[in-house]
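It is worth pausing here to work through a concrete case rather than discussing structure prediction in the abstract. The textbook approach is simple: state the sequence, then state the predicted structure, then interpret. We follow exactly that order.
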Amino acid sequence: MILQKGVAPVCIRDEIHARERQSLSQYAALSENTKGRDRHSNLCDLRTEYQRDRDRIIHCKSFRRLTNKTQVFLAPEGDHYRTRLTHTLEVCQIARTISRALRLNEDLTEAIALGHDLGHTPFGHAGEEVLAKVCPHGYIHARQSVRVVEHLENSGKGLGLTWEVRNGILCHSAGQDAETLEGRVVRYADKIAYMNHDIDDAIRAKVMTYEDIPIVFREEIGRAKSDRITYFVQSLVENSSDDIRMSSRAQQLYDELRQFMFQNVYTNLTAKKEEGKAKMVVHRLYEYYADNPDTLPREYARIAEQTDVHRAVCDYVSGMSDRFCISTFQTLFVPRAWASN
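Step two, the predicted structure:
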C-alpha cells in the first residue's frame, strides 16, 4: 500500500483497475481478470499484472540481446538498419496505437509486443531454418519465445508471466489466433512493422529502388513509410470490434505487399548473400555442442541432464546474439596465432 501523509493508504493498482472498467472496451482484457501466472507472485500495489509483465520483459537478458540479433540484413554496414530490438520497438508502437484507438488494454498489448521475439535465433530466419532442421524437437521462434519466458530466463526460473501475455507471444506469428484481442493486434502489428521498415532497409541496401514498388501500393497505400503504416492501422481501427480485422481491400493489399516483399527482398540474393555462411556457423555450433555437451555453460548443462542434450543445445545456440555466435565460432574453429611466453 502507498502511504500518504495524513490519509489512508492508497493502492494504485486498484485505481487502475477501476479506470479500466470505466474506460476500456467490453472486448478488452481487464487486468483484474487475468487467468494468472504459471507460479505464484504477490500483487504489486503500484502496477497491474500486465504492467509487471512488461517490466519483467524489459529488464530480462533475452530482451537486451535483441539489439545484436539480425532482422533481415546480416551484419549490415551502417547504423540505421533495423535489428531485432528496433523491430520489436516498432511493433510495440504500432500495436499500442491500435489498442488505444480500440480502447483495448494497452499494457497487455505492450507486454506481448515486447516479448514476441525473445526466442529468435541469431541471424534471423536463417538461424531458425537451421535449428528447425537439425534439432529433433524442431524449432519455431514463437514457441521458443514462450520457452524463454517460462523456463530459461531468471536462472531457469522463468519470468512468471501471466497466461494472456504468454498466449499472445505464442500466437503472434502463424497458426492459432491469440485468445485476447490484444494478442491479435500484436500479430497484425508485427507484419505491418516488418513489411514497412524492411522496405526502407531494402532501399538503403540498394536491394531495390522506390520505383520497384508496384504503383498500386504507392498510390493506394501511400508513398512514405508513415503513410503505409497509417493506411493499415486506420483500416484495422475502422473495421475491428469483437475481432481484429481490416477491410477486404486493405487485407488484399496487405497480403499482396507481403508476397511482394518475400519475392523481392526476403529471398533476394543480394540481401541473402551472407546467409549461407550464417547457416554454416549455426550448424557447426549446434553439432559441436551436441557432440561435446560437457562444454555447455552450467545452466544449459543442467537442462541436458534434466531433459536431453538436443534441447539444451538448441536453447543455448538460439539464445546467442549474432556477435556472440560469430565470436564463439571463431574461438572453437578458427586457429589463433601461436606465441611463446
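Step three, interpretation. The chain has one domain: 49-329. The chain has 16 helices and no strands.
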